[in-house]
Amino acid sequence: MKSLVLTLVVSIIYFSTSEAFGQLPVKPLASQAELLKSSNKKLAQNKKLVYDMWREFLEGGHMEVAEKYFAESYMQHNPNAATGRKAVVEFFSKFTKPLAIADTIKAKVVSIVAEGDLVVLSFVREMPDPNDPSKTYTTTWFDMFRIENGKIAEHWDSAEKMKFN
């Protein structure tokens, strides 16, 4: 009897709360121009450094600007890429071709947060729904960078190891 009651209670909770706790879509908090602002000049500079690197290097595919943005000793915590400025150029050269550089980041930016020597970019990420492949859902992707002497010295994200052929 106790197991039947427990099963009934768990079922009621599950089915009655699945919509109540349904995921809200991830959306940008403000325009990218607004997200770049800070009352602290150094934090605004750090945000702009990471923002411009993202536009020019990552989305624009301009590997020649790496020295402008990355410290030679750049440390990488993504399990798919090696450490060092040379390594980040080699890694992204496999996936990108130079394009016109956009005025804003093409991806949907949720927020740009700076504190001390760290800058965090968060993005809307659309994923296939594992329960219904005809649907998608949004989640958030985070990249964090540490700035040292005006260059990106270190990077973290939530990437998992990928299989490369």
Automatic annotation (TrEMBL):
Which Pfam families does this chain map to? SnoaL
Task: Tell me which positions the record assigns to the signal sequence.
Answer: none
Supply the name of the protein: Ester cyclase
- What is the species listed in this Swiss-Prot or TrEMBL entry? Arcicella rigui
